[in-house]
Amino acid sequence: MTIRLAGQLVVCQLFSFRLSYSGKAVHRVFATGGQEAFLEGHVHALHVLGGVPTGRVRYDNLKAAVAQVLGFSRQRVETDRWVAFRSHYGLEAFYCQPGIGGAHEKGGVEGDIGRFRRNHLVPVPQVATLEELNAMLERWDAADDARRIGSRPRTVGELFAAEQPLLRPLPVEHFETGRWFHPRVDRYGQVTVRTNRYSVPRLIGRQVAVLLHASHLVVFDGRVEVARHERMTAKGGTRLDLDHYLETLVRKPGALPGATALEQARAAGKFTPVHDAWWAGACKAHGDTDGTRALIEVLLLHRHVPHEQVVAGLAVALKVGAWTADAVALEARKAADHERDGQPTPDLHDAITRAPVVASLTQRRLAQLPPDPRPLPSVAPYDQLLRLARPATPGRKP
User: Fold this and answer.
1) Positions in the chain whose pLDDT score sits under 70
2) Which tens digits make up the pLDDT trace of 193-218?
3) What is the pTM of this model?
4) Where in the chain is the domain with CATH 3.30.420.10?
5) How many CB atoms lie within 10 A of CB 266?
6) Neighbouring-strand partners of residue 228
7) CATH architecture, domain 2-166
8) For residues 387 and 393, what is the distance between their CA atoms, to the nearest angstrom?
9) Which of 250, 248, 177, 184 is nearest to 215 (CA)?
10) Got the DSSP string for 229-275?
């Protein structure tokens, strides 16, 4: 299926799990069709249904489950992780005949996918993230409980209410659907997972553990999570997190303007136009090197302060011309106090257009002093000293 993700046309994979008696179906969209997505789709579907089917589940001969088809029989060599998953949940798989000969054996789910696509995915949906699209799919699945299939006298929801108590209970323990990798961090602070490179903070030369899921991956140093990235579906790509390079950029601030991590942060909306405007003002006030270092100190605030509060602090500092990270931190703390006290936090537009809240201490002290009636000092009396003749020095010609 094709969707418009963040303004770009992207091909995604639609997972469908359908019960034959009631016609209750669960759908999920993934950026990849790998085994991780296949297993995660099952976990999501079984938890939505609230149990495991006791009968056989029909499957096509997809590579995530079948490693080899043995002749024209129904015997299959299954993949190791699929065997472990089926054993964990107690699923009994029934594999259809390859090609046209087995097309009629899975007509129920094939017809459901076509109906679901025509009714809900036409025209092409436009979303910002896959999480947003999956939330829409969950609402559509819930709404489909009110429909009737063909001439059935009862709805899908009514039939599922009778079918759900017959499902086998879910296992108590969780099955890890992700796949483990153990790459070594290269000299650029990156790890390579399935031809794609991801940034890792301050672990050059060390071997780390990477847990790859269908939509994201997590990097561990021992048992400590050190990085989390959205998974890339294309090959040979690079995904960098600007936060992972801030300690290096403090020593080499000249590398920031042309950094790939900065461009990706701009594209992701993490580095906003307010950051750019405050950066330009800081460079004008302190010079390029010191101004960039001040920006990096502001970026370090994102590790402890929510993004929206830092942006609000930047907007106020930009309004009053405060080009230090301390001023930004102070305004971000004020925004946090507003939120903690239950008061509405001003949005970005209000933060930029409202009256300045950072007052100059010098102006405040001068405003509290009484008026000075004394005249301004003058150096005119000293001018008469310039007209006096200089006494001659003995031994020198006048």
Assistant:
1) 101-103, 338-367, 388-398
2) 988 999 999 889 999 999 999 989 99
3) 0.74
4) 2-166
5) 15
6) 218
7) 2-Layer Sandwich (3.30)
8) 18
9) 177
10) EEPP-SSS-EE--GGGGHHHHHH-GGGSTT-HHHHHHHHHTSS-HHH
